[in-house]
Amino acid sequence: MYTSTIATVATFTLGAAAAPWGHFGWGGWNGWGFNGGSGECMNDAQAQQVANNFKGLISAYTNDLANAVLTTDVQDFSDSVIELIDGGCPSSSPGPAPYIALGSPTFTSLATFEAGQGGQPNITFNILNVWHNCDTVTVRWRGPMPNPGPIPPPPAVQEQVTGIIVLETSFNGWQSAQPFLIQTIYSEFNSGAWLYDLGIFTPAGCSGSARRDAVAQALPAGMGMVKRS
Ligand SMILES: *[C@@H]1O[C@H](CO)[C@@H](O)[C@H](O)[C@H]1NC(C)=O
Hints:
By secondary structure, the protein is of the alpha+beta class. It has one domain: Nuclear Transport Factor 2, Chain: A (Roll), CATH 3.10.450.50. It is built from seven helices and eight strands; from the N terminus they run αββααβαβαββββαα. α1 (2-11) runs antiparallel to α4 (79-85). It starts with a helix and ends in an 11-residue tail after the last helix. It comes from Recurvomyces mirabilis. This is 25S rRNA (Adenine2142-N1)-methyltransferase.
């Protein structure tokens, strides 16, 4: 139902999949140098593996996958997810719990992640870009159909949701099938579009320009908004 879709969204902050990359032996070359001795820098393939792991948690979730690719103390931070959990309502709303305050972690351990994710629907998750340094992977992604339905019923045409996730990892040893485990997740995305797809937010005045232009006047140019002249 509605809540289960929301929980899926919350889950969105994690990710791991049966990555086809295999494991990389210690002492191999990576993009930053030779991984011998004290070097613990991931290479491009290992960063892609981390990104694919995250994708798997969203699009093909199993507890085995979560156990394999997340640290036991994994934490997730996402005001975008909290906005969805709260149904677009301010956390000060008087309605029944749970309302979660913006800025709160959405998950604080592997156990709470699995409890939230178990049984949630899988959602198509396309990776658009992957960047990395030695221990952190940044992923730009897009979900073309964020509401798998049938409850709540999705709109005739769903708005895509695009987001950016920063995945801080913990080195797990070169001999491991997962040399870099996801430890901290910072995830933000277009929760406005997702609320639309879930039918929670129904925009008004879409056939006119007055409201759109008023909003444009309020947005900072630094966010890329082209203001009405
Ligand atoms: C999600 O995908 C995984 C892997 O294919 C599958 O085992 C799991 O049952 C799916 N979850 C749901 C809720 O369909």
